[in-house]
Amino acid sequence: MLEVMLSLVHTPVNEILGLSQDFDEDWSVPAPLLGECPELTLGRSVAVPGSEITMLEDTSFEDIWNALEQYPSIQQINVTTTSSEVIARLGSFFFLTRLSVTYLADRPCLFDGYITHLRTLPYLTDLALARFDGVSFAFIAKAFVALKNLTIIGCTVRNESIPPDGLNRLKSLQLSTAIPPDTFRTMFAAAGSLSELSLSGGKTVAAFLAAPESRPWKTQKLLQRLTLATRVPLKRLGVDPEHLHAAMRSMPELKRLSTDSYDIRLFVGNYYPQVSLTWLTCTVCAADFPKISAVQERFWESVQPKAKKA
Fold it and tell me: What is the DSSP annotation of 10-79?
């Protein structure tokens, strides 16, 4: 018997689902099967640091319905969509361990009533949300007890207290959104086992690097990789060198720091040479990607951060 094994499926998903339907109609063999670590990528988007997310391809309700019909036991799904109905169906994939959802309609999708319905996913270890309104870290801590990796991009977040150790299983946390004071203050006590942390935006980075008596965390003993997505100088961040010294001493296991801030790079390179430094922006890509063709140049310009007028 012919058996087609797939380990990874990328959009347009209707092509692979159409292939499955052709097998059903024309062949006396099963539809293509997904092997170990099955993953579906439905829809596509792109963004560079500091820019808005640009949609390349949408996911329709028909796409998600066909995927659920063909692959109900899928474990990993990456979805880019403008339809809240698509998000409402994600809870039906009971065996999901990794879920990434990017919502690119005119307005952000409500967290309540959509992501809250995903409490039915007991095996979820990785969750990434982009452009949701009213994200609740307290709910995430309570509902997804197996969660190890969390990414929040371009969302609005509730101002609430997170229970102590509520996110203690988290190993990786990426925040590319404004975090309200109470949430930020209690977040690091709730997530004391982080090995990787990524923060975006001047205000968030400034709050993280503030004076020891002001910052929302005392120590991150297990943190090994830190990303500070900002180009803002330390003076404009309101961060003194002594504050940065105190922060670095509170991360004794730190091995790698990624940032485009020259001040932070010079400081860490001078005083903490054991920490490797990397850039966030690939200078080769920025220089050479637009040169490939006129289409590439227009695409590159479309995803760049819009320059603010003085």
Answer: ES-HHHHHHHHHHHHHH-SSPPPEE-SS-EEEESEEE--TTS--EEEE---HHHHHHHHHH-TT--EEEE
Among left, alpha and beta (phi > 0; psi -120 to 50; other), residue 165 is left
**Mean pLDDT, consecutive 10-residue segments, the chain of 310 residues?**
42 50 49 58 77 83 88 90 94 93 94 91 95 96 94 95 90 93 88 94 88 76 94 89 92 95 94 94 62 63 54
Of residues 260, 190, 247, the one with CA closest to residue 218: 247
Instruction: Give me 201's structure tokens.
Output: 């935006």
Q: How many residues does the chain have?
A: 310
Q: What pLDDT is stored for residue 3 in this prediction?
A: 39
CATH number for the segment(s) 52-301: 3.80.10
The predicted pLDDT at position 2 comes to 35
- The residues, any chain, with a CB within 8 Å of residue 55's CB and separated by 6 or more, are 43, 44, 45, 80, 82, 104
Please tell me whether the overall predicted TM-score, pTM, comes out greater than 0.70 for this model: yes
CB count, 10 Å around CB of 222?
Answer: 15
Residues 6 or more apart whose CB falls under 8 angstroms from that of 203 comprise 178
Kindly give, in sequence order, each residue whose CB lies less than 8 Å from that of residue 41, ignoring residues fewer than 6 positions away: 8, 9, 10, 11, 13, 77, 78
Alpha helices in the chain (DSSP H): 13-26, 61-70, 84-88, 137-143, 181-190, 202-208, 234-237, 241-249, 262-271, 283-288, 294-302
